[in-house]
Amino acid sequence: MDVIPYSTQSITETDIEAVAEVLRSSWLTQGPAVPDFEAAFAQLHDVKHAVAVSNATAGLHLACLALDIGEGKWVWTSPNSFVASANCALYCGASVDFVDIDPHTRNMCPEALAEKLAVAKRAGRLPTAVVPVHFAGLPCDMQALRALADEYGFYLIEDASHAVGARYRGAMIGSRYADISVFSFHPVKIITTGEGGMVTTQDEALAHRLRALRSHGITRNRSELVHPEEAVGEWYYEQHVLGFNYRLTDIQAALGSSQLRHHDQFAAARRNLVARYRELLADVPVKQPFYSDESECSWHLYVIEVGGTGMPDRAEVYRRLRAAGIGVNVHYIPIHLQPFYRAMGFKRGQFPNAEHYYDGALSIPLYPRLTHDQQDRVVREIAKAVV
Ligand SMILES: *Cc1c(COP(=O)(O)O)cnc(C)c1O
Fold it and tell me: What's the pLDDT score for residue 2?
């Protein structure tokens, strides 16, 4: 029996040819393919600056560094995310806290954030940055988050790992509300480069810092040198800050540019499958994802919620579907329940909406090449498994 995965990459012959072309060229890294990919990505997201990085986790780390997040500072994120959304702050020596989700959108709840900010202000412990996560590709309520950011004076770093091509109230994610946005190109995401990520910003100074930090903190730009008198030859460069090697290769960037050219088609395929799920699952006793006309979700994941009194619980539904060859998965185990975070004092019960959501969550197959026949099989098996 063939297993239908919850997600998988879509690689075309043109993608393969684009990668082969780089392999035949003289640049495997630091050549022309990276700036080309950055320009194409910036154009799609309607943003001035795009900085390609080795993965989104590295991108989140650089975003924190570029905003001077370090010891004694606080970063808040959503517990309903991958651990990288929180770890990035710890890399910089900062402290992490969480804001519970809205059970409908499964994104950070703006009202919960407002309440927590009011308390933190009185305690003199306001966050330096908040990292909202566009879960499954559904944009967070960025107008509300931006208003709070302006009121309390914190930065917004969007974890847009799921949100390539997503739109919020007419604005592309990355173009308007956040200070820095970070996208992932892991194979299960909207487009892939194998491993890879993109950091975007509208702020030129931030973009400049991000580029320097991505490559060892080194510059070769003659106008920036601290010791121009030392620059007696072409070899000369200066390290100004402690940076990293978080570069993307040209091999990956060529794949990324080629994938971007398929993006419209990928997005249309996901929307078509989502419309079918909404209809096909309408009479099945599961909670379907929140749907908004206000935003364009990129539909990275299709997460249903199962369980409830008298029904098989999520673990049982998961087991039944896996046994039937449906590769369901779970997104996410709330970050604060990870042993590493519990060791910092986080406890079950602190973010009840995220915990309750997690108890029923099940990601069902969604990717551009999923056929209608396969999707019909998925729905038949879900209908059997949840009762
Ligand atoms: C995938 C993912 C990341 C990490 O992305 P990588 O490119 O694998 O480092 C971070 N946050 C979220 C929400 C993700 O889904």
Answer: 87
